[in-house]
Amino acid sequence: MQPPHSCLLLFLVYLFLISGIWATPNGTFTLRLLQITTFQNSSFVDTEGLGLLEDIELGCLDKNISIHFYQPWVQPALPHSEWETIETIIKDHLQIFSYMFKEGAMQTNVPYPFVAQFAGGCELYSNRTSQFFGSVAYNGQDFLSFDTDNATWTLSQNTNLSWFTQEIYQKGNAFTETLEIRCVDDLKLLLESGGRAALERQEVPVATVFARTPSPHQLLLVCHVTAFYPRPISVAWLRDGQEVPPGPALNTSTVLPNADLTYQLRSVLAVAPRDGHSYACRVRHRSLGTRSLLIPWGNSQVLLLMGLVAALLAAVAVAAMLLLWLWRRRQHQCMEESESRNSIRCREI
Fold first, then answer.
1. Environment class of residue 87 by beta-carbon count within 10 Å: exposed (0-12), middle (13-18) or buried (19+)?
2. How far is Cα 231 from Cα 239, in angstroms, rounded to an integer?
3. Exposed site from 50, 89, 221, 263, fewest CB < 10 Å?
């Protein structure tokens, strides 16, 4: 069954903490839980959550505090009793989090509506050491952060509400304490269950080059690269075989996600029409190994067009020769049939 689009972010924060990690080139895995809670007024609170294994969505929590899994290997990674425990911990956390901000808002005269966010997780390094991280935000601004060296929550804002929230966190928070203790163990189980294979998959990029003419004096060459995974990629323009350096004429977008857990980007190069140079878009990606994709434009495009025309003419010539051969064969057969009929008439006479 397809999980609901809107999910409780708090559970995902815990779920991400135990299930969301991504293998970086240096062998580091990161598990993240994300939560966003909207306080419309003192009686209406809405929370959503998401769990991530690096960039892989593991699952979410709906408004009824029910877990929905996005990947088939997430739920089998932990026993049923563990998931029940997780749900209980998440519910307790949500209640405390909601009380903390509503009480703080009342005592410090904070106006409604406002938004509070929580992010937590852990990193597992290649040398088998690990580190927990956690932070709280208020209206999109840093609010509290966890100091791993001193195991304390530090202020990012010097306000009455931040002081009130810090005091509650310093007294003890079962949710964050549980995340800190169990995160790495659950992360390892998720990797073994299927997370590592999901992170190591590779999808080859598909690249196309086309042009736009915003004015008669400017030509925009667009290199659109899509359907690749993992996220890191290198896209560059070559002018007469030499890489075009960064500058005002070159504009490359950030890497954006597709709906199927692949990525895309565009690189646009502004050139003068008919400037006499040849251009090509070069794409390098892990899935290509030591190879590169090279998509030409400019003079290279003319050569490509000439090659296509030559191939078309060759195909026409071959077709003409084939038709001529078939015609001659048919003529030969007709002559043989005619001679055969004449021979039969002669014998009858």
1. middle
2. 26
3. 89
Strand order, beta sheet including 278-284? 242-243, 234-239, 278-284, 293-298
In this structure, are strands 130-138 and 114-124 parallel, antiparallel, or unpaired?
antiparallel
Q: Quick one: fold of 9-200?
A: 3.30.500
The rounded Cα 186 to chain-centroid distance in angstroms is: 23
Split the chain (349 residues) into runs of 10 and give each run's mean pLDDT.
45 38 62 92 90 91 82 93 85 88 93 94 90 92 88 89 88 75 90 94 96 89 96 96 95 93 96 90 96 81 42 62 70 63 50
Q: Which CATH number fits domain 206-302: 3.30.450.30, 3.60.20.10, 2.60.120.260, 2.60.40.10?
A: 2.60.40.10
Q: Using alpha carbons only, give the angle 72, 73, 79 rounded to the nearest 5 degrees.
A: 115
- Ordered by start, the domain boundaries in the chain are 9-200, 206-302
Q: Which residues contact 61 (CB under 8 A, 6 or more apart)?
A: 7, 8, 9, 10, 11, 12, 15, 48, 49, 67, 68, 90
List C-alpha distances in Å: 242 to 11, 210, 245.
Answer: 50, 20, 9
The tokens for 158 are 């010097």
Distance CA 60, CA 49 (A): 6
d(CA 20, CA 5): 18
pLDDT for position 342? 53
